[in-house]
Amino acid sequence: MRITTRVGVSSVLALAISAGAAFAENIKIAFIDPLSGPFASTGTNGLNQYEFAAQKLVNEKGGVLGGDMFEIVGFDNKISPKESLIQLQVAIDQGIRYIVQGNSSGVANALTEAIEKHNKRNPDTRVLFLNYSAVDPALTNDKCNFWHFRFDANADIKMDALTDVIAQDESISKVYVIGQDYSFGKAVAAAAVGMLGEKRPDIEIVGNELHPIGKVKDFTPYARKIVAAEADAVITGNWGSDMLGLGKAVIENGYTGPIFNYYAGSDGITAAFGESGKGILMQVSEGKLNPPEESAMEYFSAFREKYPESDTSQPRITNVIEMLAKAIETAGTADDVVAVGNALEGMEHESIWGGKVYMRPQDHQAIQDVHIMAHTNEGVQIDFDNSEFGAVTVNTVEMAAMDSDTTCKMKRP
Q: Please, are residues 295 and 287 in contact by the beta-carbon 8 Å criterion?
């Protein structure tokens, strides 16, 4: 199944040029993420956010290059790497030169390899991959390439911030690590064990396991093991239905310590946790939501009016849209993706969510502030799920990992 949605208009009268006039074109951006299956709500939320960001931040301001509009085209990949490659080819065949994807690092790894091969063989139809949420560190390390840009902080950057907080809490002596059984889940586990070992060697890892992604219906057996291990803290990279299922099961089985996580604040999750998650869920993320910047509050209010059942839970999406628009303007073209890629490298961008985003040239990893946020209903202006609950910043690491090492050896066209 392929789901298509258009943002903007199909043909817009552009500014008069000399004695004549030109018709603006739509610059298509392929959104390849799950729009059906167990993670459909996560993908649909992302699609809504891309639609709105394109319309509000680009099209309503006159587009780019004198009137060209952004058009978001949705492709359902069913969270499958194989299906993602099929949809990638469909998008390329339709003349689309910009690909966005974020849900599943397994999918991102498949896409970045396929795009690199395609671009080598087909210089006339090259594409750029704008990764907004797949955070496997390998994507900007050993598997880096010129065509891939990551706008989210990677798993290691986020874990560095989380383990700083854990290391400072003397009440934590036992930690249970659990996650989804694929590249991202494995990266989270490895980073948690390694960083805690360096920062707090006295902490005991009382559990370290992976579970099938998107297939566990009842997390009670896992929850009971966590409680039986007498863990003081839980670390998980789970997202979507797996985050909700694990968190609810752990809390319902009597666990009262912190659950340090990456993705507990999003559509269909925050309201489901509600009061039960207060004082327990601690999320690491980019983009300061509460207290919000004035620009963020204005954007959130307009988004909620258009999509009353959806959330602005992925601030990095606005950065993708605005930075791509800037890069196209700088390059003076949307057709030459090499020129656009060169313009993205080293770009500094002031986010509407506050703080600066810097696209590091050596590995195409976005460097930005990283926040530790608590699930609460106190001090919340930007909420999730139309509930009174949201994520409030309790700790910030400014420009996290700015000087961190990378194994990327970038080969440029």
A: no
Residues in contact with 243: Cβ distance below 8 Å, sequence separation at least 6, in sequence order: 236, 261, 263, 264, 269
- Looking at residue 38, what is its pLDDT? 87
**Residues 234/259, Cβ–Cβ less than 8 Å:** yes
Q: How large is the average pLDDT for residues 262-267?
A: 84
Rounded to whole angstroms, the Cα distance separating 48 from 41 reads 10
Sign of torsion over alpha carbons 44, 48, 51, 54: negative
Amino acid at 295: S
Please give the structure tokens belonging to residue 98.
């910009």
Instruction: Report which residue type is found at 234.
Output: V
Q: CA 369 to CA 293: how far, in whole Å? A: 14
Alpha carbon distance 226, 346 (integer Å): 44
**12-152+294-367 with 156-289+369-397: one CATH topology?**
yes
Per-residue confidence band for 214, with pLDDT thresholds at 50, 70 and 90: very high
Rounded to 5°, the CA angle 155-158-159 comes to 80
Tell me which residue of 364, 367, 370 sits closest to 287, measured CA to CA.
Answer: 370
Q: What are the backbone dihedrals phi and psi of residue 53, each rounded to the nearest 5 degrees, phi first?
A: -60, -45
**Residue 143: partners with Cβ closer than 8 Å, 6 or more residues away:** 109, 112, 113
Per the prediction, the chain carries an average pLDDT of: 92
Domain 156-289+369-397 belongs in CATH node 1.10.10.10: no
Q: Options 3.30.70.260, 3.40.50.2300, 3.30.43.20, 3.30.1330.60; which CATH number does 12-152+294-367 get?
A: 3.40.50.2300
Contact 148, 134 (CB under 8 A): no
For 281-309, letters b (16+ CB in 10 Å) and e give bbbbbbbbbbebbeebbebbeebbeebee
pLDDT of res. 264: 92
Spatial distance between the Cα atoms of 156 and 159, rounded to a whole number of angstroms: 5
Identify which of 47, 54, 117 has the alpha carbon closest to the alpha carbon of residue 89: 117
Report the C-alpha gap between 127 and 129 in whole angstroms: 7
- Considering the entire predicted model, what is its pTM? 0.89
Alpha helices in 307-404 (DSSP H): 316-331, 337-344
